[in-house]
Amino acid sequence: MPVELRKRKEAPPAPVRPAKKKAPAKSKKAESEKTVVEKAQDTVTEQVEAVKEAVVGKSSNGESAATGGAPKVGDTIDLSTFGGEVETNDGTKTTFAKLVEESKGGVVLFTYPKASTPGCTTQVCLFRDSYAPLTATGYSIFGLSSDSPKANTTFKTKQKLPYTLLCDPAQTLISAIGLKKSPKGTTRGVFVVDKEGKVLAAEPGGPAATVEVVRKLVGDKEGVPTKEEVEKKEDEEMADTAGEVADSAAEVDA
């Protein structure tokens, strides 16, 4: 009797193992979950970065770079990129670099908040009355505000100013010399540079104080107005302004 061969049973296929799930990316720990050591490491890292920034912000001779803020007395500024473009009261476009180039000995900028107001009128008139001695050594004087050319032309004409008024509505130059008042105001002050761009004066001050700064630079000691004289002039300007307002009101009523 023939032997019947049994068929070998086939082994079942091996089960497919599910793919391992990728571990979620480690998220940055919240500040509250950090250990004391981790917090200390973060602090050290921040300090190192701060030191790097401070080193990069220094010039080769150890003085602060001009881009680090408003220039101070003794700094030499890069005139080619300083202050952007401004406009004279007669509508001519110009730059601070061009003003310095055209001067004989340097430039005096005095800033004022608003044309034709009492304090600003006092200031421009003090510079007007001292114009000859202040420019005797070659300085060119300019008033600087964020007023329009029209407003500054009216101001210049009425007060018979012998110097140009600069209009800086965007406050690029006012900001560059550090006399912008947030958000859109202007701090009264004075800024002086020589022909090489070295800063000789940079400070806020009242009408008489800004003139006195320039007087000291040019060696003119005579004619410095006293506090009483300045206050008297301001009172007169305020009285004139009040009179003009009254006249305008009377015209409207009529």
Automatic annotation (TrEMBL):
What is the reaction catalyzed? a hydroperoxide + [thioredoxin]-dithiol = an alcohol + [thioredoxin]-disulfide + H2O
| Residue ranges crossing the lipid bilayer per the database entry | none
Q: Which UniProt keywords apply?
A: Antioxidant, Disulfide bond, Nucleus, Oxidoreductase, Peroxidase, Redox-active center
Q: InterPro entries, from UniProt?
A: AhpC/TSA, Peroxiredoxin_BCP/PrxQ, Thioredoxin-like_sf, Thioredoxin_domain
Region Disordered: start-end pairs: 1-41, 220-254
**Where is it mostly found?**
nucleus
GO BP terms, alphabetized: cell redox homeostasis; cellular response to oxidative stress
Q: Name one GO molecular function term.
A: thioredoxin peroxidase activity
Q: What class of enzyme is it?
A: oxidoreductase
Composition bias of kind Basic residues appears in 18-27
Residue ranges, compositional bias (Basic and acidic residues): 1-11, 28-41, 220-235
- Could you say which EC number(s) this protein's record lists? 1.11.1.24
Report domain Thioredoxin positions.
Answer: 59-223
What is the annotated localization of this protein?
Nucleus
GO CC entries: cytoplasm; nucleus
The family note in this entry says: Belongs to the peroxiredoxin family. BCP/PrxQ subfamily.
Q: Describe its assembly.
A: Monomer.
User: What is the protein's name according to its record?
Assistant: thioredoxin-dependent peroxiredoxin
Origin species: Decorospora gaudefroyi
Recall the taxonomic lineage recorded for the source organism: Eukaryota, Fungi, Dikarya, Ascomycota, Pezizomycotina
